[in-house]
């Protein structure tokens, strides 16, 4: 932990005068998540819901309104403030004027207010407002680029009217040099604008998708499971629709559109009433785009409904394939599918045909506007109102009007979808998550805790029978508790409720005599160890996976790996402990259960947790003896709760909880031979195997 980083954050909280509960929560957070770098500072500020912004350190910081600031250097950090009177640092409870010899790589985290008490209704608009200062700069670049583009038609007109018509060939070189310079400047500005738009749009997409992902990670597990992977992915990728609007040709057209008026005025100056042509063209684009959007919304809904119907039939086939193949109902199912498939194909064809039709219409309007300028311009030439060079220049100018308009008309539906994407993003951000706007957390030490459940009931959505019904038992500090019972009796659900992953609808869970709701979910899960029966390998290094967020010596990790017989395999990896797990999977094959269990066992043996929850920890006889030794070693040092069907492991526990259909059949010490006679028959069967 970097002490200067920690002190700076705590000083900033004192400067903005947060409530004592928030201050205490920050202290608890830092104990669980030590601050090593700027990313850790951002994580704490995000958890406290403190509004902040990040800037490079420069003289312009004093013009930005802020309550306090954290200046982050390469290896140090300081709480400070930038104001019109100069730079001041926070030392011993007060601000002291200082010189600010900053490096070019230093950043400043400006704190703009107290912790928020609720989510912003329009979070996305607030996020996009941070980029508003860049819009005038982009408009200025577009204005200058369009001025250069405006000069090129007039240069062309001078060539036709003056050089060719006036037989002034000696001026061609000078005009050519000027035209090349103007074209080069216009191209350069267009490239700069394109790069700026791409950078801004990618940053917006990244920040929005990261914010949505963080919200998903801290949402209730039960709600996340119900949403499904496809829904979660759509929430994250919604930000891509924002990026597609701001970058590429569409982004350029959006910033060129305000300056179309320049080219319309130029057409009016050259061709007089020819200016009616671009005005009528723009009106046609607008009317047709609105009409196309209404029809496209209807067709899109039809495509969605028919596609969903076809997908539901495919999902039904996947779940009922054996039944369909073994019964006479298959021909009827095929008839249903053919009908749904035909309807989906027709709707998709109609949707694509609609898009192609209007794309052709927009192109025809652009072409007809040019032909109209030619036809009407010839009449003006014969009337000696317009020169031949002026007609060519007018044709070039009309393309500068129709090009961005045609692009926007073709993309009008995408612009309309932005509002829908905005609503989806705001809904995802405003979704209730664990610990939102709550800063209560009871201190947790490294001693084994007591666990008490009183009439805990859990019912999943769309299930008539509860997964857990009035479950009650108590575990004393340092005890080993085994949970057993038939398949689907609620063992895993009980562990998830104890860990706080899934909130119970009824009942109370007490940790050290305090209701589990009085603990912050993130800090609580950092404190105890939870091991699922299906270990998941995430893209991180082997050392980080085994360390599980704790600071462990490499020698200790290697000793444990050697103890379980996995050191040779880890050393054979390209980078040893620093090898990323996803690299290992891509080199050969996905992790086998044996490899995953070895790493999970190493994590369990390397780390000490006051409370350990294990879901079916032993899956083979090879690991059984090692687990039994570990169990005896940690008895009394940690409160251990595990699920198992193995009678040898159950007999090692201090208490056993027998579940059957979500109900507790027995909870208490393992009966001896005399007591077994009076216990329920199921209890006897469980203990005797």
From TrEMBL:
Residues 453-686 form the ABC transporter domain. It is found in: Cell membrane. Keywords: ATP-binding, Membrane, Nucleotide-binding, Transmembrane, Transmembrane helix. It comes from the Bacteria. InterPro entries: AAA+_ATPase, ABC1_TM_dom, ABC1_TM_sf, ABC_transporter-like_ATP-bd, P-loop_NTPase, Type_1_exporter. The keyword Membrane applies. The chain crosses the membrane at residues 138-160, 172-192, 212-237, 257-288. It holds the Pfam family ABC_tran. GO terms for molecular function: ABC-type oligopeptide transporter activity; ATP binding; ATP hydrolysis activity. GO terms for cellular component: plasma membrane. Residues 138-417 form the ABC transmembrane type-1 domain. It is a multi-pass membrane protein. This is Adhesin LapA exporter ATPase component. The gene is lapB.
């Amino acid at each position: 932990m970097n002490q200067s980083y920690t002190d700076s954050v705590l000083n900033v909280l004192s400067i903005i005068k947060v409530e004592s509960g928030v201050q205490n929560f920050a202290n608890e957070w830092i104990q669980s998540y030590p601050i090593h770098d700027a990313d850790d500072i951002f994580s704490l500020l995000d958890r406290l819901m403190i509004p902040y912004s990040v800037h490079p350190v420069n003289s312009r910081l004093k013009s930005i309104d802020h309550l306090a600031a954290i200046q982050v250097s390469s290896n140090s950090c300081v709480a400070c403030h930038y104001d019109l009177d100069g730079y001041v640092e926070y030392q011993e409870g007060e601000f002291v004027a200082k010189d600010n010899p900053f490096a070019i790589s230093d950043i400043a985290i400006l704190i703009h207010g107290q912790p928020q008490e609720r989510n912003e209704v329009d979070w996305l608009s607030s996020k996009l407002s941070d980029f508003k200062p860049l819009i005038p700069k982009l408009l200025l670049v577009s204005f200058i680029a369009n001025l250069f583009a405006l000069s090129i038609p007039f240069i062309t007109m001078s060539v036709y009217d003056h050089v060719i018509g006036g037989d002034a060939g000696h001026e061609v070189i000078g005009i050519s040099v000027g035209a090349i310079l103007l074209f080069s400047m216009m191209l350069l500005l267009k490239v700069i604008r394109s790069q700026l738009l791409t950078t801004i749009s990618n940053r917006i997409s990244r920040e929005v998708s990261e914010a949505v992902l963080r919200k998903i990670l801290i949402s209730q597990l039960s709600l996340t499971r119900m949403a499904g992977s496809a829904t979660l992915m759509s929430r994250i990728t919604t930000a891509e629709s924002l990026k597609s609007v701001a970058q590429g040709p569409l982004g350029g057209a959006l910033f060129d559109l305000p300056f179309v008026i320049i080219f319309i005025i130029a057409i009016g100056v050259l061709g007089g009433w020819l200016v009616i042509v671009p005005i009528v063209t723009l009106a046609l684009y607008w009317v047709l785009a609105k009409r196309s959007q209404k029809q496209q919304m209807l067709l899109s809904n039809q495509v969605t409904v028919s596609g969903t119907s076809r997908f539901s039939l495919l999902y039904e086939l996947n779940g009922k394939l054996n039944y369909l193949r073994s019964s006479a109902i298959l021909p009827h199912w095929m008839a249903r599918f053919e009908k749904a498939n035909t309807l989906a194909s027709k709707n998709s064809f109609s949707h694509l045909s609609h898009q192609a039709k209007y794309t052709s219409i927009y192109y025809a309007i652009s072409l007809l506007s040019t032909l109209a300028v030619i036809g009407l311009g010839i009449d003006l030439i014969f009337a000696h109102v317009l020169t031949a060079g002026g007609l060519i220049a007018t044709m070039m100018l009309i393309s500068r009007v129709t090009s961005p308009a045609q692009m926007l008309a073709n993309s009008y539906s995408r612009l309309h979808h932005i509002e829908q994407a905005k609503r989806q993003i705001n809904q995802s951000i405003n979704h209730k998550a664990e610990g939102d706007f709550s800063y209560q957390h009871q201190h947790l030490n490294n001693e084994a805790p007591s666990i008490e459940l009183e009439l805990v009931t859990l019912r999943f959505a769309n299930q008539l029978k509860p997964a857990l019904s009035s479950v009650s038992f108590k575990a004393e500090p340092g005890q080993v508790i085994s949970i057993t019972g038939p398949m689907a009796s609620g063992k895993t659900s009980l562990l998830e409720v104890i860990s706080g992953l899934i909130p119970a609808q009824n009942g109370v869970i007490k940790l050290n005599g305090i209701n589990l709701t009085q603990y912050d979910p993130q800090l609580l899960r950092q404190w105890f160890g939870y091991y699922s029966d299906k270990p998941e390998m995430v893209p991180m290094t082997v050392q980080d996976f085994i360390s599980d967020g704790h600071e462990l010596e490499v020698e200790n990790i290697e000793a444990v790996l050697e103890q379980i017989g996995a050191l040779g395999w880890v050393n054979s990896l390209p980078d040893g402990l620093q090898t990323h797990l996803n690299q290992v999977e891509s080199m050969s094959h996905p992790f086998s259960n044996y490899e995953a269990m070895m790493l999970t066992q190493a994590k369990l043996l390397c780390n000490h947790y006051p409370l350990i929850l294990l879901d079916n920890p032993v899956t083979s006889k090879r690991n059984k003896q090692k687990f039994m030794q570990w169990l005896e070693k940690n008895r009394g040092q940690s409160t251990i709760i595990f699920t198992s069907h193995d009678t040898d492991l159950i007999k090692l526990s201090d208490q056993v909880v027998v579940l059957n259909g979500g109900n507790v059949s027995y909870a208490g010490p393992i009966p001896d031979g005399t007591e077994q006679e009076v216990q329920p028959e199921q209890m006897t069967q469980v203990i005797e195997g």
